[in-house]
Inverse folding.
């Protein structure tokens, strides 16, 4: 019986990760509601992807308009804004479109706005 308490750090970390991965969105929302921070009757958008964040698209537009900001700097700003919700793969098509435009700000902004509009329409 004493063996169940003899777990090395790696095993404990793996167990914690498995427990976190088993957590559902509904459980997390329920916990927030129980704290009183998030009221039960307030709408909670758990299905809206981070790529639909208007602030993130503003960062992308600012990057597109700036000749001084590099792609890595834009990615860093997106990471800073979205924190743990940032996924590089979500932004690759957009950042690639900016690169393909090769300093043609008008073309790049047009493509960014098209992509943003398409994302915003996703339910």
């Amino acid at each position: 019986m004493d063996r169940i308490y003899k777990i090395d750090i790696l095993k404990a970390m793996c167990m914690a990760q498995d427990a976190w991965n088993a957590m559902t969105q509904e459980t997390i929302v329920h916990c927030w509601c129980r704290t009183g921070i998030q009221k039960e009757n307030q709408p909670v958008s758990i299905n809206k992807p981070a790529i639909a964040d208007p602030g993130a698209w503003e960062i992308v537009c600012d990057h597109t308009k700036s000749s001084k900001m590099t792609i890595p700097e834009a990615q860093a700003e997106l990471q800073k804004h979205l924190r743990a919700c940032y996924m590089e793969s979500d932004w690759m098509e957009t950042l690639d479109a900016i690169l393909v435009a090769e300093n043609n700000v008008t073309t790049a902004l047009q493509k960014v706005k098209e992509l943003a509009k398409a994302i915003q329409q996703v339910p």
